[in-house]
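Team,

Forwarding the record for the chain on the shared tracking sheet. I've put the sequence and predicted structure together so nobody has to dig through attachments.
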Amino acid sequence: MRSLPSDGLKQALPYLALLGGILSLAIGNAFAKSLFPLVGASGTTALRVGLAALVLMLVWRPWRFALSRADAGRIALYGLVLGLMNLCFYLSLQTIPLGLAIAIEFSGPLTLALFHSRRPIHFLLVALAVAGLGLLLPIWKGIEGLDPVGVAYAAAAGLFWALYIICGKRLSHRHSGQSVALGMTVAAVVILPFGLASAGSSLLSPTVLGLGLVVALVSSALPYSLEMFALRTIPKRTFGIFLSGEPAVGALAGLALLGEQLSLIQWLAITAIILASVGAVLTTSPDEDTLVETPPA
């Protein structure tokens, strides 16, 4: 009988790790937004991706594995998409709340998950997601201040998230650590010019580098590691349901850490997108489930 509590803790540990990863990502993104006054959105993206690349290179040491020319090209494309996804997402955070940016970004993998849908329930889920996005249009009371440019950047991030999933699946035969480390390095090279143009030498300030390292660890290295641990034992479908709650967690993090107040209609929009996401996870076959493919940054 004495072993029961430890057994229960062992079973709960992967779920606690997954919850910790989701919270860490939301807190990291909220903290990253606080860096915008120092180096801008592009500079913050460059710090996050660049420092995350260094950490991943040290952890995975991808040079240990052989790499064909074809796979090198696939990793380059994967890294390009990864970098643009991060840049567009952070650019969206300049003008729209964190929770809404995540919800809009979710439209990418959600659309991909339902792209080949033929079942009636899937069309209902598409309608629910569209209704959620429609609630964010500036035609409702309390939505007037939602910046269309920020919304466009978040939608572009969603598109790149969908492409990231497609590119990632083309690398499924490779060592995941090598693919992520090299892909993140390519992403850093892609994003660095934008960061330098935005922040210049400010990126090399010891204070900024220290804050950027915190962002890279809390919003990239830590949540990715926790999610990888959780995926070892949690069914992918359950993982996807947990992941679907990220927009709400992001909205709460934005409220608590950034003071971002959302209207009732905006909360309804987030709820509709979350329900559509959960429905997609529950009604697609495991081999078609794309919502569990999370960006490592």
